[in-house]
Automatic annotation (TrEMBL):
It comes from Lutibaculum baratangense AMV1. The lineage of its organism: Bacteria, Pseudomonadati, Pseudomonadota, Alphaproteobacteria, Hyphomicrobiales. This is Exodeoxyribonuclease III. Its cofactor is Mg(2+); Mn(2+). InterPro entries: AP_endonuc_1, AP_endonuclease_F1_BS, AP_endonuclease_F1_CS, Endo/exonu/phosph_ase_sf, Endo/exonuclease/phosphatase, ExoIII-like. The record marks D218 as: Important for catalytic activity. It is an enzyme of class 3 (hydrolase). One of its GO terms (molecular function) is endonuclease activity. It comes from the Bacteria. The keyword Metal-binding applies. PANTHER family: EXODEOXYRIBONUCLEASE III (PTHR43250:SF1).
Amino acid sequence: MRIATFNINNVNRRLANLLHWLEESEPDVVCLQELKCTDAAFPAEAIREAGYGAVWRGQKTWNGVAILARGAEPVPTRRALPGDPSDRQSRYIEAAVNGVLIASIYLPNGNPQPGPKFDYKLAWFERLIAHAAELEATGVPVVLAGDYNVAPTPLDIYETPSWDNDALVQPAPREAYRRLLEQGWTDALRTLQPETRVYTFWHYMRQRWQRNAGLRLDHLLVSRSIAPRLRAAGVDREVRGREDASDHAPVWIELAGH
C-alpha cells in the first residue's frame, strides 16, 4: 500500500501536474494540502476519471485538504481538527481507506513570528498532539500525513542562516513535533533515511530548486500498530522541477500487506 502526501499549492492550477503524477506513480492513497478552492470548485470529476475517489474540505483562496483513494471511496471520519469549534480554517480531514485511518494535515505556517499567526500555529499543534494521542491509544493503524510546516532538525534544512527567524525552524514547533513523536509515532522518511539531507519543499525564490536549497516540511507519521509494515519511503523529487510545479514534491511511504 503506497500512501503519499502532496502540498499541491492550488489544485486547479496544478491539476495537469497532479494527474500526470497520479498516472505515473499510482499511489493508493494521496493526502493533498493547499487546495486553494471552494468545495464546489474541487476537480472531483477529473480526479474520478483518473481512478480516484475523494473526500475534501475546501476554502476560498487559502488552505484546503483532501484525501484521494485509488479505486475506492475514502470513508470520512472527521472534517476538522477537534479542540476549537471557532476555528474555521480548512486544515484537517480524516478518512478510513482499506483498513487504515488516514489524516491529511496542513499545519499553520506561523509567519511572521512572534505574533498572532505564530500563536495560532502553536495552539493548532497542541490540538493535533491531543487528537493524535487519542488516535494512537485506539491501537488502530493510523497515518498522519501532510505539510507540518516544521523542519524538525537542522538536518531538514539546507545549511544557511537565512531562515533563522522563520517560524518553520523555531524551537517551539520543533519541540511540539518531538513531543508528537514521543507518543509512539514513527517519522517514516527520517527513520528509513536517518542521515540523509532529504527535502520536500523548495521556495520559488533565488533558484532554490536549482541549488537544492530545500527544507523537509512534509511528513508521514505512522502509528505503532502499523510501523512494522513500513517498507520504504521517499520523495518524488523530479515533480518539483516540472513546468508550473508546486513548490513541494510528493512524499510517499510503502506499507506491506496485513
